[in-house]
């Protein structure tokens, strides 16, 4: 029997966390279970590195081009990092959402708050470490940063944690399986948001008959 339900718009899922919280691991697990997430390729003014290709890792553009796009309001979020601009174009994200594809953003707090202005009905998740000592242990166990870099990351995490109350959901990554279960639940619950199915009830009622 054919369904009369209106198509669901895609969901914006935004995930932020201090460095070392385990965000990449949780996101990889979510993508493995739900492989149809859409991704927007960001624009940047920096030069390609290694085997990076234009249109694959990033859209590599000139500074003048980026500034012109920004002036036209084409970015859902943008930031300057180490002298280079990075930004997410709104149009391709809107297109994926209109197609019913969910879009995941792994982004910093500044970018997340910009995205909220454009995508108000998204789900904004902040991942928290169980403690400072555990966060430091994880950073040291990675073996990729100097003591100075680790201290800098720990200092930055304080500022990020102070902005956690601007997010819709908190997930504490103490036990990985439990944290993933909570993140998964947020995602699945977000897909039921009535805002993603405008007109569904009206369509249902109209076809109900008197």
Automatic annotation (TrEMBL):
It is found in: Cytoplasm. Residues 10-188 form the Guanylate kinase-like domain. The keyword Magnesium does not apply. Its EC number is 2.7.4.8. GO terms for molecular function: ATP binding; GMP kinase activity. PANTHER family: GUANYLATE KINASE (PTHR23117:SF13), GUANYLATE KINASE-RELATED (PTHR23117). One of its GO terms (cellular component) is cytosol. It holds the Pfam family Guanylate_kin. Essential for recycling GMP and indirectly, cGMP. Keywords: ATP-binding, Cytoplasm, Kinase, Nucleotide-binding, Transferase. It catalyses: GMP + ATP = GDP + ADP. It comes from the Bacteria. ATP binds at residues 17-24. Its main location: cytoplasm. This is Guanylate kinase. Belongs to the guanylate kinase family. SUPFAM superfamilies: P-loop containing nucleoside triphosphate hydrolases. CDD domains: GMPK. It comes from Pseudodesulfovibrio senegalensis.
